[in-house]
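Checklist before submission:
- one chain only
- standard amino acids only
- sequence pasted in full

Submission:
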Amino acid sequence: MVVVQLTLLVVFLIILAFAANRLVRYLVELSGFYGWPTFLVSFIVLGLGTSLPDLFIGVMSSARGEFSLVLGTVIGANILVLCLVLGILTLVKGRLWIREKTVIENFGWIFFVLMIPFFLLFDGRLTFFEGLILIVVYVMYLYNVKEHQSYFRRSEGQRSLLQTMEPIPKHSRRKLLARKIAYILASLAVVMVASYFVVENALVLSSNLGVPPILVGMSVVALGVALPELALNLNALRAKEEEIIWGDLIGSFITELTLVLGVAALFSAPGNGFFDFSQATMGYLFMAISFLLVFFFTYKKKELTRIEGVALMLLYVIFLSIEFDLLLFAK
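Returned file contents:
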């Protein structure tokens, strides 16, 4: 029975990853239609697009009164992105460069975003009003990105990830635009359905194994929803668009902690928003450590080296080991 549930969970996570990857691709093509700046595209379109599976999983889990699954997925996905995804990208590239302005402005915002959910979640519940606060923080950062979009405009002649996408001829813009929107809606529908079955199978697997849902969220579910992000950033690496990578990673990190948690709180049924934050404390600490480690690695020399990427990957393994010890074997 456990093997069947685990198999179903993996199958639906693969479907979810594939649909989310197609959705992000169509969104990027649509943004290319309007000629948006690279970092603006990578933060808003890619950061939000790669977080859509988490968003739908959060809504469905919260409506079921399983907010701990939401929290586990958000924390696990962010640690996975900062440690495993960045580590793999650095191993492939050798050195991952980062612009100074990206470090100073956006990492400062990440620290701000890290603190707000921690204090809101500390009492073991996230209310409707607190969810609105998190969404407002997300909108504030969107405004901040928009205000600085002139800096993020691509220099002339720079190869862009957007240029690798399917071009849109001027003579058939309306027809192609309608087709892209139809593809986006179809992919979104698949993401929604797959998210529902991911939540169902994750909760059943948690019950059958006798482990907390937050542990399933931090491990299996987080790994599944992060697959599209890894695939996307590998494509950006091949296109030599490191600004795309950092914009996506920063955008995804902030989207998870603000929009995903905020929307999940809005859909939580009255009296169902309670959870045991003590189960998430170590994970939240590792998430903060991961951020600080990336910050210190990149702040002075504006690059992430291969050995530092390996260190981040080892941190992810340590995180999983400790979480399994605390949440599974501590009983």
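Reviewer check: Residues 150-165 have pLDDT under 50 and may be disordered.
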